[in-house]
């Protein structure tokens, strides 16, 4: 499983450890990924996602998973989230 947020696309960054003697060794900065369960009101079911706390706050601020996915860019979303976005859009179009 990749170390990438399924909603925002935030991934591993690479940098250096720098010692007091200014020696540099490669290191990785890992994103703070959490396993969360979110409710999709349009689909009427819960969804398990691996996202960062920043993404979770964004979902809450936008008013839920459906509203977040409606405004999210497709390039940032994982394949699973993109399929979910399309199915939510189909449900919304069928309801209206």
Measure the end-to-end span: 37 Å
CATH architecture annotation = Roll
Major β-sheet annotation:
2 strands, antiparallel
Element pattern in H and E: EEEEHHH
Number of strand segments: 4
Share of helix, binned: 25-40%
Question: How many helix segments?
Answer: 3
Cross-sheet strand order for the largest sheet: 1-2
Helix-strand category? alpha+beta
The pLDDT mean sits at 95
| Beta strand % | 25-35%
Low-confidence stretches: none
How many domains? The number is 1
CATH level-4 homologous superfamily: Ribosomal protein L28/L24
| Overall geometric form | elongated
CATH top-level class:
Mainly Beta
Index terms:
elongated; alpha+beta; 3 helices; 96 residues
Give your account of this protein's structure:
The chain is α+β, with helices and mostly antiparallel strands. The protein has one domain: Ribosomal protein L28/L24 (Ribosomal Protein L24e, Chain: T), CATH 2.30.170.40. 35% of the residues lie in helices and 27% in strands. The protein contains 3 helices and 4 strands, in the order E-E-E-E-H-H-H. The protein has a two-stranded antiparallel sheet. The termini are far apart. The model has no long low-confidence stretch (mean pLDDT 95).
What would a concise description of this structure say?
With about 100 residues, the protein is an alpha+beta fold. The protein has helices spanning about 55-60, 65-70, 80-95, and strands spanning about 15-20, 25-30, 35-40, 45-50.
Show the helix and strand layout.
Layout: E1 13-18, E2 24-29, E3 34-40, E4 45-51, H1 53-62, H2 65-71, H3 79-95
Antiparallel strand pairs: 1-2, 3-4
